[in-house]
């Protein structure tokens, strides 16, 4: 097997694992997905989606990390933090095809797979397996859980440590505090007692 074939085999296996995390997909489905998606590299601070643009794609993070934020008067307001092995997009902008109220920016050098909404529609018309992508539209439930359940600062920090443990290792306290809607000093005290 040549090195190019080995790389291709590894890519196929990785793609298969990504798809299988959503449900059951055949080898033919995997090949279709690869033809309709694109792999991209982003540098630190490179913007993937600007506030005011319409989100037209889903992104799977192969490596690296991203922040999703609104520009504030003094500081950016972090609405979501994303790490490797998860899907990322601006849900309201993507589903309603309206201008995004947030910016998505690479926090570190990152690799992603991009699947446009048009490509997903094409895939769904070719194989009903791709209807399983509807599951990724429910991923906002983690963030909703934090704020709909009136959790105290310790409970919020504990919840993200269980649901997305890499966040606390990748992002600085100030960004995590903004995401959790608490002062950085409060988060520092919570982490010291955790």
Give the topology:
Layout: H1 3-20, H2 27-36, E1 38-42, E2 47-49, E3 57-63, E4 65-70, E5 77-83, E6 87-88, H3 91-96, E7 103-106, E8 110-116, H4 117-126, H5 141-148, H6 153-163, H7 167-170, H8 173-180, H9 184-193
Helix pairs in contact: 1-2, 2-4, 8-9
Overview of the molecule:
It is a single chain. The chain is α+β, with helices and mostly antiparallel strands and 194 residues long. It has 2 domains: 3-136, Sandwich (Jelly Rolls); 140-194. The protein contains 9 helices and 8 strands. It has helices at 3-20, 27-36, 91-96, 117-126, 141-148, 153-163, 167-170, 173-180, 184-193; strands at 38-42, 47-49, 57-63, 65-70, 77-83, 87-88, 103-106, 110-116. The protein has a 4-stranded antiparallel sheet. It has a 4-stranded antiparallel sheet with strand order 2-7-4-5. Helix 1 (3-20) packs across helix 2 and helix 8 packs across helix 9 (184-193). It is globular, with a radius of gyration of 18 Å. The model is unreliable at 1-13 (pLDDT under 50).
């Amino acid at each position: 097997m040549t090195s190019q074939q080995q790389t291709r085999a590894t890519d196929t296996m990785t793609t298969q694992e990504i798809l299988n995390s959503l449900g059951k997909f055949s080898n033919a489905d995997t090949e279709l997905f690869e033809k309709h998606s694109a792999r991209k590299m982003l540098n630190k601070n490179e913007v993937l989606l600007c506030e005011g643009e319409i989100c037209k794609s889903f992104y799977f993070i192969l490596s690296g990390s991203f922040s999703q934020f609104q520009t504030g008067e003094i500081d950016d307001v972090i609405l979501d933090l994303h790490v490797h092995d998860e899907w990322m997009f601006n849900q309201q902008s993507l589903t309603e095809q309206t201008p995004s109220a947030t910016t998505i920016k690479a926090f570190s050098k990152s690799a992603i797979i991009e699947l446009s909404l048009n490509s997903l529609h094409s895939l769904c018309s070719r194989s009903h397996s791709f209807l399983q992508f509807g599951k990724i539209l429910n991923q906002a439930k983690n963030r909703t859980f934090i704020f709909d359940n009136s959790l105290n600062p310790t409970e919020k920090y504990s919840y993200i440590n269980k649901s997305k443990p890499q966040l606390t290792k990748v992002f600085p306290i100030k960004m995590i505090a903004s995401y959790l809607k608490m002062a950085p000093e409060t988060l520092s005290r919570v982490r010291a007692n955790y």
